[in-house]
Write a structure and sequence with these properties.
Blueprint: H1 15-24, H2 31-41, E1 46-49, H3 56-66, E2 77-80, H4 84-97, E3 106-109, H5 115-123, E4 128-131, H6 133-142, E5 152-155, H7 158-163, H8 167-176, E6 182-187, H9 192-201, E7 206-209, E8 220-226, H10 232-242, E9 247-251, H11 255-267, E10 272-275, H12 281-293, E11 298-301, H13 303-306, E12 314-319, H14 326-333, E13 343-349, H15 354-364, E14 369-370, H16 376-413, H17 417-428, H18 436-442, H19 452-457, E15 481-486, H20 496-507, E16 517-519, E17 524-529, H21 533-539, E18 544-545, E19 548-549, E20 553-554
Helix pairs in contact: 2-3, 3-4, 6-8, 14-15
Bound molecules: adenosine monophosphate.
Adenosine monophosphate is lined by residues 26, 29-30, 33, 52-58, 253-254.
Length: 558
């Protein structure tokens, strides 16, 4: 059993922050959160050893927000992050957790974007600053009082900051901060350089670390699949086509995700149900009973809700969302391989979670092999195999029972027995695609087996239908720009000038702000300014081009 982690409320988080967490659907604190939050709330300095994927951002964001006074319009917390991407991610996380705190503002300060708006936001009293060290130092050179009111400091991914050569900048920043501040340092590793910073700039820091014990999971065959976050449901559906499972448990992180995935599975005809912390105990027991006796085959659960499930029928565990730590991974996959049986565990890994995968491999002492998504041919073979398996036990007796009726129908309808059997198959399979062309058409994703020329023609992007590997590196972006994607392309009659026209007219931005536009057959990419992107995408929400919804989204190529 994993340790009981308690509730967020019991940790003493401010009610407004608690309300926001409930809204996002977190059910219980992750181990790093359970340990760090009380320490930070109590005002201690702290060193936390944790990497991405453990929930470390919330581990500092929640207590920091709980200690901020939104009525005071001055910088109160500073979070330093090594890269622009991480700074933006952390700023977005703060905004999410501060949704119920009116008057609370977050400013992200990073290089590659104009300084003016950042300085303005700082002067207008944003209470939380999330910054990369280099750019923050630029601001300090213009105004050395910017940080004078900061009471809480977080160094996020401190080891990465040092690797990127930010040591000198950090010293400048420490100088500009009040001595009385609280300091928290998060780092995946603690090399001497980090310890030395801690010795010089932290006061009696408490150490928080998640113990990593080696655990064995010998009878469970493990594999992982690289997938982008927005493709997870499609990937699960595809995997289920070919995995021969009896019962399966799929793990996700939030209540909402349990509901979303369970209903996507039900819509495809699987006997699936969600299990999360909102589900009453008696209902929960019913779900588990149904899984035991075969009325259900798939349960989509959060860690909390799945605790203690012991169902020998479970042959498969899908880790749809990454667990927070290796222990919880081992605990999750232990739901299969019960009673000495063999089990299979599949882990979906998004590109930024690669490191967590390595940690899991290290702690479990086992390689988690990479698998690819099945292609259309494999899906088709699996469907035909299922059909064969379901029909073959029937043929022995069916002739005696239905043979005469068949003859009669052939005569009445005036068709061949083959035509009649085909019609019966159509009915029996509910119109499911059962030839290669149809399967290819219905599959929104295609595995990595695409010819290289096609990939290169498509500009090295992940192909519209889901290229998983061997991507060519995308074109580098100009500073301050991001790529956005629409599912409209040449097959929709789109040319660059249509896209440009629509974005200029409806987005109200200058032509110079727009970078390269790439039009492909089934999608297009366009470079837009990162600053104000959310607002711009908001303005373009209902925009149509060539009669179709543009639906422009930020395209993350990590
Ligand atoms: P991080 O380690 O901060 O990069 O967080 C990893 C992911 O876990 C983020 O997508 C968070 O939204 C999510 N997350 C963090 N804490 C929790 C929690 N207590 N329950 C569910 N999801 C969480």
């Amino acid at each position: 059993m994993t340790q009981e982690l308690g509730t967020f409320a019991a940790l003493g988080i401010h009610p407004n922050v608690l309300a926001a967490i409930t809204a996002v659907g977190y059910e219980e604190p992750s181990p790093i959160q359970a340990q760090s939050i009380p320490v930070i709330l109590a005002g201690h300095d702290m060193i936390g050893q944790a990497q991405t994927g453990t929930g470390k951002t919330a581990a500092f964001a929640l207590p920091i927000l709980s200690r901020i006074d939104p009525a005071k319009r001055e910088p109160q917390a500073l979070i330093l992050a090594p890269t622009r991407e991480l700074a933006l991610q952390v700023a977005t996380a703060f905004e999410t957790y501060a949704k119920q705190m009116p008057g609370l503002n977050v400013v992200a300060v990073y290089g590659g974007a104009p300084m003016g708006p950042q300085l303005k936001a700082l002067r207008q009293g944003a209470q939380v600053i999330v910054a990369t060290p280099g750019r923050l130092c630029d601001h300090l050179r213009r105004d050395d009082k910017v940080l004078a009111t900061v009471q809480q400091l977080v160094l996020d991914e401190a080891d990465e900051m040092l690797k990127l050569g930010f040591m000198d900048d950090l010293e400048v920043i420490f100088e500009a901060l009040p001595e009385s501040r609280q300091s928290v340092l998060f780092s995946a590793t603690l090399p001497p350089s980090i310890r030395s910073i801690a010795e010089r700039h932290l006061r009696n820091p408490q150490h928080v670390k998640i113990a990593a014990k080696t655990q064995t999971v010998a009878r469970i065959e493990q594999a992982h699949l690289m997938v982008h976050a927005d493709q997870k449901t499609a990937a699960v559906l595809r995997l289920l086509e070919v995995e021969e499972f009896d019962a399966l448990i799929a793990f996700v992180r939030t209540k909402q995700a349990t509901l979303d995935l369970a209903s996507a599975l039900e819509a495809k005809g699987y006997k699936a149900a969600a299990l999360n912390g909102d589900i009453a105990q008696n209902q929960r027991e019913r779900v588990i009973e149904s899984l035991k006796d075969g009325r259900l085959d798939i349960v989509v659960a959060t860690d909390v809700a799945a605790r203690g499930i012991d169902v020998p029928r479970i042959t498969h565990v899908f880790n749809v969302d990454m667990p927070y730590d290796p222990e919880s991974y081992v605990h999750r996959i232990g739901r299969t391989g019960r009673a000495g049986r063999d089990g299979r565990a599949l882990l979906l890994v998004t590109p930024r979670e690669r490191r967590m995968l390595q940690v899991i491999e290290r702690v479990t002492g086992q390689k988690v092999a990479e698998v690819r998504l099945p292609n259309a041919q494999q899906v088709l073979d699996a469907r035909i195999k299922k059909l064969t398996n379901s029909l073959s036990p029937l043929v022995a007796d069916a002739d005696a029972k239905y043979g005469d009726l068949l003859d009669r129908l052939v005569t009445d309808i005036g068709c061949t027995p083959r035509a009649l059997a085909a019609a019966l198959l159509q009915r029996a399979t509910n119109g499911q695609a059962l030839n290669l062309a149809d399967v290819e058409r219905e599959q929104p994703l295609v595995p990595s087996a695409q010819p290289r020329e096609r990939r290169e023609r498509d500009g090295g992007e992940r192909s519209e239908r889901g290229e998983y590997r061997e991507r060519r590196a995308p074109m580098p972006l100009a500073e301050g720009r991001v790529r956005c994607r629409t599912a409209l392309g040449t097959r929709d009659g789109i040319a660059a000038k249509n896209l440009l026209g629509a974005i200029l007219n409806e987005g109200g931005i200058a032509r110079e702000a727009i970078g390269r536009i790439q039009i492909r057959e089934t999608f297009s990419l366009i470079e837009l300014p990162e600053e104000g992107l959310e607002r711009l995408l908001g303005k373009l929400k209902d925009t149509r081009v060539a009669g179709k919804q543009l639906k422009l989204r930020r395209y993350r190529e990590d």
